[in-house]
Request: fold
Amino acid sequence: MSNLGFSSLLLLMITLFSFGGAALVSRNSEEAYVTLLYGDEFLLGVRVLGKSIRDTGSTKDMVALVSDGVSNYAKKLLQADGWIVNTISLLENPNQVRPKRFWGVYTKLKIFNMTNYKKVVYLVADTIVVKSIEDLFKCRKFCANLKHSERLNSGVMVVEPSAELFNDMMTKVTTLHSYTGGDQGFLNSYYSDFANAHLFEPDASPDDLKSRPVPQMERLSTLYNADVGLYMLANKWMVDEEELRVIHYTLGPLKPWDWWTSWLVKPVDVWQDVRIKLEETLPGTGGGKNPNDKLLVISLFLLPVLFLVFCYYRSFLQTRSLFDHIRHLYYMLRSGGVSYSSVTSSNISSNPQFPNLAYSKVPIFLGAMSVVVCFTAAMVSLVLSLAIVPRQLMPWTGFLLVYEWTFTIFFLLVGSYLHVVHRWGKLVANQSVSLSQHPESIQYDSGKGTYIARHTELTILVIFEWQCYS
Reply:
């Protein structure tokens, strides 16, 4: 009897252990939220999406289908956030004419083959859930949002997985036309009559649903796929903002995780509010931070400051010694004022050694060239700063770093230009004084009636100084 009791207890423990271990890698519910991740660039988007789903109170599975391009660290982080991570192979895009970024988008069709779930709600990584969307699981067969009057958008979809349906799609991927060159165009061709589908009614009673034939597809309202691009056109939502369920950040170069987007697109504030609430499931990941960026951000902040201090210190020592500066400051404070000395223009003009040569030697194009150099330096500084600063920082951090680096690079470029102009001006001035003091250096050619100055020597000196500075 005791042996039977021990065997039963052992069997129970094995069963519980097996169930607990499987819960980390297999499904816990018959319905799930699904997203796709092709690389680490969209990792933060998936993390925020998962947080927004959990904030609505949902306990359904969250499944991330990841390709080989996703790092092991990203997979580990998603699992720590509560995602079930399934590694999948990419489906080849059969379209020869397509954007490069669409090379693996046909992989999205694999959600139609997730037969271990009765129903899945697919959400692309650049969406965020702002209100519970559990009612989407009432949608039957296939549901999506209609965009641009007659085209469905594949960013939010409800799917009843079926191996038969998936296999039928696979037989038609090479024959059905895709107007986008990607999965969305294919789905529009596959569900060619989608524009005529009835609107999904989540509040319909069970009796009403039973009295109607089961539809093959249904249209989701804008509330379930609110397009930020359309918001930007009207500068407002075309539906009641309080009723929004899902916001879709469709603007290509303005993804919500890029720090500059928060300054340009108002609805990104909603995304950032969820981001800062991300828990530190792995060390250094709280608030959506990347632990690898921490040292880089500190370095980017300190380098310009140290460089400017070094430049000022170098300039400080070149003018006088440190002791001279201290002594000058002491006498200035002791005397209670600052003495100034000036040189009037009349003294210069009255000197026969400077017959307005300073004015005659200034090139007429110097002003226009300086304006062009300044504008070019400003543009180059901004572009280089945007390239240096990581994209997925917090908005204020990114803004301050770009401002700091833009100023530093602009200071370097314009300072270099002014230094070259200064050197060139000194050479021209010295040469002019030399010519005025030694008139025999100017030769008169009676045959041609022209004066030949020593421009060749001056040019050589300028080139030499330029090379020394460079």
The chain has a mean pLDDT of 79. The chain has three domains: 21-289, 291-338, 353-470. The chain has 16 helices and 13 strands. The radius of gyration is 35 Å.
